[in-house]
Structures are given as structure tokens and as C-alpha cells.
């Protein structure tokens, strides 16, 4: 639980086992909430199933059926039932591009903020936004995720370097020491993590190295995996 949000992670080898464990957890939590005079919003309570069953267990909260969803938001991270993380990246990309429109109002090609200040805003605001929750979703990043991240980042790099759209992507990265979000070591600076290679822009180095000379040198450090890959082994519910 965190603040006014709570989550149950339930795992069992069978459908009936998942349902029984879920009911037991809900009953225990419901009694605790009632004892402490806390009210649960059932309208906002959802559950997501991670597994291969076509017809997973149906979960109820005191005889009220809980809605099953394909994506679930928890602490700013969007979890999808396939653990592809594309919905999460799309949402973060949408928010980043909204900030891009505001950025354009104070940083034109020949006027406005200096290159140093543009880079500072990008590194401390936009990059942090895109990398939010990376400890969960960046462990097994795919080519599709890389392309989406690069598309978003390229707009900001053009704005910062005042370059034309025809300029090569890695050339935009190098003057800024702000490398591609999908380059080697990106979003995964923990020693135990497996680095992934940017096949599209091999000249880019790691984002982690680029962050080391900014205001927050450890802001993107990823220390360990959340273990989401193991969640696929059995049916799990998060509400």
C-alpha cells in the first residue's frame, strides 16, 4: 500500500486457488478497513489478470463484482495484462509532447533560452518523465519500445540543438551528451542488469553516462528489477 492506494498480488497454480486467495485477502482487508473506519471506493477498484487463461477467476468484494481491466495504473505506472509496457510508454510520451508545446513557446530556433538552459529543462523534466518507473518496464525493452522513445526524444533534441529535421539522430545526441533513450545501458545502470544495444543508432552511448554530469546524477539509477517477469508463471491479480 502507498498513501491511499493499495494492491494485492495473488498467485496460485489453479483458477480456483487464485479466487480463494483473493477472497481471503479481500475479507481480511475489508475487516481491517471497517475496524479503522476507512471506506473503500469500489468504483475505482479494478483487477488485472496476468496469465494464459481465457476465462480467469471472477473476483468479488463483499458480493460486488470487481471490474477486470486490461491495463491498470499503480503509482504512476501503467501495467498491461501482457507486460508489454507499450500503454505506459504511450501515456508518458503524450505527456512529454504536451510539455514540448510549452517548451516551444520559450525556445525558438533563433531566440529564447540558451542551449544550456534548454538541455537543463530536458534532462530534469522531460527525461525524468519518460524514465519514470523504468526499473519495472525497461528490463526487457523491445524494438517497438525503442522506436517510440526515440521518436519522442528526437523532437526535443531538434529543439535544443536548433537543428533541422534532416539531421541524423545520433549527431543530435552527441553535442548534448544526451544519448538515445534506447542505447546501451539506458535505463538500466545496475551492475546485474543486462544492457541492450541500440541497433538503429550504434554510435550513441549510454543515457546513464549522460546523466552523470547533470543536476541529479543518480536520478535514473536503477538498482534492481521488480521481478515482474516471474508474474507470468501463474495467474496473478492486482487490484
UniProtKB/TrEMBL annotation:
It comes from Araneus ventricosus (Orbweaver spider). It comes from the Eukaryota. InterPro entries: RT_dom. This is Reverse transcriptase domain-containing protein. Residues 1-79 form the Reverse transcriptase domain.
Amino acid at each position: 500500500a502507498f498513501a491511499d492506494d493499495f494492491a494485492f498480488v495473488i498467485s496460485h497454480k489453479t483458477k480456483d486457488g487464485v479466487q480463494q486467495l483473493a477472497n481471503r485477502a479481500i475479507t481480511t482487508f475489508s475487516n481491517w478497513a471497517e475496524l479503522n473506519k476507512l471506506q473503500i471506493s469500489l468504483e475505482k477498484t479494478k483487477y488485472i489478470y496476468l496469465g494464459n487463461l481465457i476465462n480467469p477467476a471472477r473476483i468479488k468484494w463483499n458480493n460486488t463484482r470487481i471490474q477486470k481491466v486490461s491495463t491498470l495504473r499503480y503509482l504512476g505506472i501503467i501495467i498491461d495484462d501482457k507486460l508489454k509496457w507499450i500503454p505506459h510508454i504511450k501515456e508518458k510520451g503524450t505527456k512529454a509532447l504536451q510539455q514540448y508545446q510549452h517548451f516551444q513557446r520559450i525556445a525558438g530556433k533563433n531566440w529564447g533560452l540558451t542551449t544550456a538552459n534548454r538541455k537543463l529543462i530536458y534532462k530534469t523534466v522531460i527525461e525524468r518523465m519518460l524514465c519514470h518507473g523504468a526499473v519495472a518496464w525497461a528490463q526487457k525493452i523491445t524494438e517497438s519500445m525503442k522506436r517510440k522513445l526515440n521518436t519522442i526524444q528526437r523532437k526535443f533534441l531538434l529543439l535544443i540543438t536548433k537543428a533541422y529535421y534532416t539531421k541524423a539522430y545520433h549527431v543530435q545526441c552527441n553535442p548534448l551528451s544526451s544519448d538515445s533513450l534506447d542505447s546501451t545501458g539506458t535505463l538500466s545502470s545496475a551492475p546485474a542488469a543486462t544492457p541492450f544495444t541500440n541497433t538503429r543508432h550504434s554510435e550513441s552511448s549510454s543515457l546513464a553516462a549522460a546523466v552523470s554530469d547533470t543536476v541529479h546524477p543518480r536520478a535514473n539509477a536503477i538498482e534492481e528489477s521488480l521481478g515482474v517477469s516471474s508474474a507470468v508463471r501463474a495467474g496473478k491479480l492486482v487490484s
